Amino acid sequence: MSDYGEPPSHDGNRRTGWAELGSGETVELARIGARFGARVLDAIIVAVVLFVLILVFASASSSSDAADFSGFDVTGILLGLVVGIGYEVVQIALWGQTLGKRIVGVRVIHAAHGGLPGWGKAFGRWAIPGLLALIPLVGWLLSILCYVSATWDRVYQGWHDKAAGTLVIKK
Prior knowledge:
- The chain is built from six helices and four strands.
- The longest helix is centred in the N-terminal third of the chain and has 30 residues, at 32-61.
- The strands form two sheets. A two-stranded antiparallel sheet has the order 1-2.
- The protein is mainly alpha-helical.
- The protein has helices spanning 32-61, 72-95, 99-104, 118-133, 139-148, 159-164; strands at 18-20, 26-28, 106-110, 166-170.
- It is 54% helix and 9% strand.
């Protein structure tokens, strides 16, 4: 990762929207709007999957009363973890894209060499906003700030991208 900055233009000024990888390759960064759109699409997909799974588990766990959600707290948390890891981490590690990112045309890369992020970086990228969200009372706000922090970064890295060493680029 030699320089996350933008390559110099012909007049020596730094351009926005570009980053130079450690390999020397220059990549075009995904704009914040595209990243937001991908996140919204991914949230909808995950919510639908979770809703269906919750209905299935709720009806299977209570044969007489399908509306009984007692004891569902742990099951719901575990389902959320499994779906989150299965959806986000697996797709980012294997392909660099979730379904939402594919639809809007962006991809997550390893910032040093431009290849796939791999399992560790994909998990870290997912876990940081997830762990922040677990902090009582303010966690949801910190999780949102994790994503919003990309808006004031010169290469559009959120806290999760910085910690994982990833960039989001145009496909």
